[in-house]
Amino acid sequence: ALGKLLKQLVFPNCLWDISQTFGHSPGELLWIVLYVVGNLKEQYKDILKWDMDQLMLQLLKQFCEAIHEAGSPLVSVFGFIDGTDHRISRPLHNQRKYYSGQKRQHCLKYQGVVSLDGIIIHLAGPFLGPDHDLTIF
């Protein structure tokens, strides 16, 4: 199951492509991936929090200053938000909940915040396909 999760994260294409490798249907692979992510999140919830050793107030202030000096009119920005739509196979039930009209596909959305040193400091999701990025934020 962990191998299937890692393959999905490294090769974020349609689950149908990966199903050929592992011999499961795309729906089964989706449930396996979500189950493993949920287990990892529950097992490591103590360390999957804001890391006060890495993200100290002094470092965040340096990030804010660097972004402001680069031309941003805002003085309190220390990271950048990025979202991604992860395509899923068409569900049998509640298809409209997962369909993104903008991308014209059924998908789940994830959102992350990256700091200036390239470290992902926050991840959130999955969210339903039609949810707007500002709604997720």
Automatic annotation (TrEMBL):
Signal peptide: none
Protein name in UniProt: DDE Tnp4 domain-containing protein
Keywords: Metal-binding
Species of origin: Gonapodya prolifera (strain JEL478) (Monoblepharis prolifera)
InterPro entries hit by this protein: HARBI1_dom
Start and end residues of each DDE Tnp4 domain: 81-137
Cofactors (names): a divalent metal cation
Family matches, as Pfam families: DDE_Tnp_4
Molecular function per GO: metal ion binding
